[in-house]
Design goal:
Radius of gyration of chain B: 41 Å
CATH topology of chain A: Rossmann fold
Oligomer: heterodimer
Radius of gyration of chain A: 18 Å
CATH superfamily of the largest domain in chain B: GAF domain
Strand content of chain B: 15-25%
Shape of chain A: globular
Structural class of chain B: alpha+beta
CATH topology of the largest domain in chain B: Beta-Lactamase
Helix content of chain A: 25-40%
CATH architecture of chain A: 3-Layer(aba) Sandwich
Distance between the termini of chain B: 133 Å
Number of domains of chain B: 3
Structural class of chain A: alpha/beta
Number of strands of chain A: 7
Order of helices and strands of chain B: HEEHHHEEEHHEEHEHHEEHHEHHEEHEHE
CATH class of chain A: Alpha Beta
Largest interface: A-B, 56 and 51 residues
Strand content of chain A: 15-25%
Number of domains of chain A: 1
CATH superfamily of chain A: Alpha/Beta hydrolase fold, catalytic domain
Number of helices of chain B: 15
Strand order of the largest sheet of chain A: 1-3-2-4-5-6-7
């Protein structure tokens, strides 16, 4: 078996569009489904004065290298977690404060379980280890809801899905024109977004919570339909060394709607 | 003040041909126009004070929270998002949504203005088109998997190549994190011959359990890390967890009713396979099974062409090839070559009095004893009847005589199948050195044969050595 080790720092940095600012204890931000590192623009700058702030895009999102996408690898969150570990290894970051939103939080948690030695603190913003309800667990969604989301994705990317966009643009040899149609923020590749949605919303990582050994903060919105308060409590209860902060925020993106609260919660936790 | 064309602004807002809503920064509805309330069958004052996302079914909420709102916050607007709104009667209204934030003097969001278009027609048309497109793509994918497989298998000749082809097709077709193929070996156990098995070394006690279960039932088995599967395959579930995997799908490779092996795909999350996925894999597994059967038949033919059916030794043609090759080699360095012709003494009475099946058993036992008497690199073949030929490369007369002595001792020992019968070997040895000049295979075999007759004439159970 041939193991493809990342051949150089450059590869991983380019693959995940890693950006770095500031000096100090490293703080690494991971975005969730549907967006890119843009998500952190109201939070990350607050740490630049006394931290090395590291931002990156999951493969398929933002300005990541789409050619690095291999469906088999990214068919589970472990593939994304492997990328994160590689980033930390290549940049040789230790005692990392990891801040992840939503599925990005779970990816960071899996990475910390793989190599706890690089992590000092985990901050999970709106994490959910499983979205689909089971007999004895309430994630908040049914399989039909997830199917509807996937249909919704198709509907939204209908105009610029990979096969149709070039036809509409009348320029099959210039696919970059089709990409321009996408929003300027939170760019994602439509077909990868569809797969990432399946992986995000159909994964079950409940068993991984109890294996976390890194001190963990769960930041939970008080009103979040995607990751309800009960789920946040469950996550905090399952992770041995963890605390839960419930911020008075409506919606799944506390770091966008109440960035100051999120910054304060992180600073209090890591100081 | 004159009323603007089209009525007053209030009417323009309330009766606009699209839904128009306003929320505060927290997504709470503060204003909704009549068009929207009528489309949804809502009572306006019931809507006010509720979050806009409450109007969306769960699937749309997922998209709204993870995509629509972040882009709106970061960009200040978001256009043409396709969502659904749940009407008061529970039915769904497909809509296209534009939204824009309004910022206060401090740069904070004060309100969000949302325009909603009824997209029922567009959506149903798109849905049909998408469904058609997806069906066509699924079919095309299946066909291309099968076509690629058939091309790949026709180019694969050895068992390992066939297994590797199957493993890589499996990995691609199922979007698996890895895949491997295990074939049933001579002892009836499954051995991984291609691909990557991430559970290797992790499930020692009942490594064969899952594969055997698949082959016995002749059905695909999918095991995940759920508690239910942990009861049936505890070691597999533990190994999956250790390997950071969540499920494994194992497919039987059958040749009619004969199990040839299994193909396994490994997944990083729990996966249930669609019927069409399983069908494609089993179709590819059938192609692999045919390729394996073909390859094994060819191997058997090749084996049969060179081996004696009764004893499994090299046959006459094969032995003569070996001699010719050894002669070609010995022509260069000055190394001797010895060829032995062996004829059994006392074999005919066994055949006559105990029958052919005992005779055959004796010949097989002789083959075993001859093989055991030789060193690696020395070749023994059956020349026909009770005649055997031994080829000893790089062996002079003395060394050949020593080998012959071991052969005499081995054959002299009693045979359990023929108690009371005395069997021995008459041996003729022909030794050749390149310095002696050129000889042919026939010369060597003929000389050894003649020397064997000399041994018979001198009283059997002995060796005669000649140089050619």
């Amino acid at each position: 078996m041939v193991v493809n080790a990342p051949s150089s720092t450059f590869d991983v940095v380019e693959r995940n569009n890693v950006t770095m600012r500031g000096e100090g204890r490293p703080i690494v931000f991971a975005h969730g489904f549907g967006c890119s590192q843009d998500m952190w623009r109201l939070v990350a700058p607050h740490f630049v004065d006394d931290h090395r702030v590291v931002l990156f895009d999951h493969v398929g999102a933002g300005a990541s290298d789409l050619s690095a996408y291999r469906p088999g690898k990214y068919d589970s969150l472990e593939g994304y977690a492997g990328d994160l570990v590689e980033i930390l290894e290549q940049l040789d970051l230790r005692d990392v404060v990891f801040v992840g939103h939503s599925v990005g939080a779970i990816i960071g948690l899996l990475a910390a379980n793989r190599d706890p030695s690089r992590f000092g603190s985990l901050v999970l913003v709106g994490p959910s280890p499983r979205y689909v309800d089971t007999d004895d667990y309430t994630g908040g969604f049914s399989q039909a809801d997830i199917d509807a989301l996937l249909d919704g994705l198709d509907a939204n990317y209908f105009g610029w899905s990979e096969t149709i966009a070039p036809v509409i643009m009348g320029a099959p040899d210039q696919p970059e024109l089709a990409e321009e149609l996408n929003d300027s923020f939170c760019r994602t590749d439509p077909s990868i977004a569809r797969h990432f949605a399946r992986v995000t919303f159909l994964s079950d990582n409940r068993r991984d919570l109890a294996e976390v050994t890194v001190p963990t903060l769960v930041i939970q919105s008080s009103d979040d339909v995607i990751a309800p308060v009960a789920v946040g409590r469950y996550v905090a209860a399952q992770i041995p060394d963890s605390e839960l902060v419930i911020v008075p925020v409506t919606g799944h993106c506390a770091h966008l709607s109440a960035p100051d609260l999120v910054v304060d919660a992180i600073r209090t936790f890591i100081s | 003040m004159s009323v603007p064309p089209g009525g007053d602004l209030e009417q323009l807002y309330e009766r606009a041909p699209f839904g128009y809503l306003v929320t505060d920064a927290n997504d709470v509805l503060v204003r909704v126009n009549r068009t929207m309330t009528e489309w949804g069958g809502f009572d306006a004052h019931q809507l006010l004070g509720r979050p806009f996302r409450d109007l969306l079914p769960s699937g749309s909420q997922l998209l709204y929270e993870t995509r629509h709102l972040p882009v709106l916050r970061l960009q200040g607007f978001v256009n043409e998002v396709s969502l659904q709104i749940t009407r008061a009667d529970g039915s769904l209204l497909p809509v296209l949504v534009n939204a824009a934030t309004v910022l206060g003097d401090d740069g904070e969001v004060v309100e969000v203005r949302i325009g909603v278009l009824d997209a029922s027609n567009r959506t149903s048309y798109e849905k049909e088109l998408l469904a058609t497109q997806r069906t066509a793509k699924n079919l095309a994918d299946r066909v291309s998997v099968l076509q690629d497989a058939s091309a790949a298998f026709s180019g694969a000749n050895t068992e390992t190549q066939i297994a590797q082809t199957l493993a890589s097709i499996l990995e691609g077709a199922l979007v698996a994190s890895s895949a491997c193929v295990a074939l049933v070996d001579a002892s009836g156990r499954l051995e991984v011959v291609a691909g990557t098995n991430p559970l290797a070394g992790r499930i020692l006690p009942d490594r064969q359990l899952l594969g055997s279960a698949v082959l016995e039932s002749e059905r695909t088995v999918v095991v995940g890390v759920s508690d239910r599967d942990a009861e049936s395959f505890p070691a597999v579930v533990t190994a999956l967890r250790e390997a950071r995997l969540q499920s494994i799908a194992v497919f039987p490779i059958m040749s009619d009713a004969t199990p040839l092996g299994v193909a396994a795909a490994f997944f990083g999350r729990e996966r249930s396979l669609a019927e069409s996925e399983t069908a494609v894999v089993l179709a590819v597994a059938r192609q692999a099974s045919q390729a394996l059967t073909r390859s094994r038949a060819q191997e058997q033919l090749a084996y049969a062409a060179l081996h004696d059916q009764l004893t499994g030794l090299a046959n006459r043609a094969s032995v003569r090839d070996s001699i010719a090759r050894a002669l070609a080699r010995s022509a260069h360095p000055n190394s001797p070559l010895s060829v032995m012709f062996i004829d059994l003494d006392g074999f005919k009475p066994v055949n006559d009095r105990l029958g052919h099946h005992v005779g055959d058993a004796i010949l097989r036992e002789v083959a075993t004893r001859l093989t055991a008497s030789l060193r690696a690199g020395e070749i023994v073949g059956r020349h026909g009847g009770d005649e055997f030929v031994v080829v000893c490369d790089d062996t002079g007369g003395d060394a050949a005589s020593a080998i012959a002595e071991r052969i005499h001792e081995a054959i002299r020992r009693p045979f359990a199948d023929a108690p009371g019968f005395e069997i021995s070997a008459s041996v003729g040895i022909a030794t050749h050195e390149a310095s002696d000049g050129r000889v042919s295979t026939d010369d060597l075999v003929g000389a050894a044969d003649a020397a064997m007759y000399e041994s018979k004439r001198l009283g059997r159970d002995r060796s005669t050595l000649v140089h050619v």
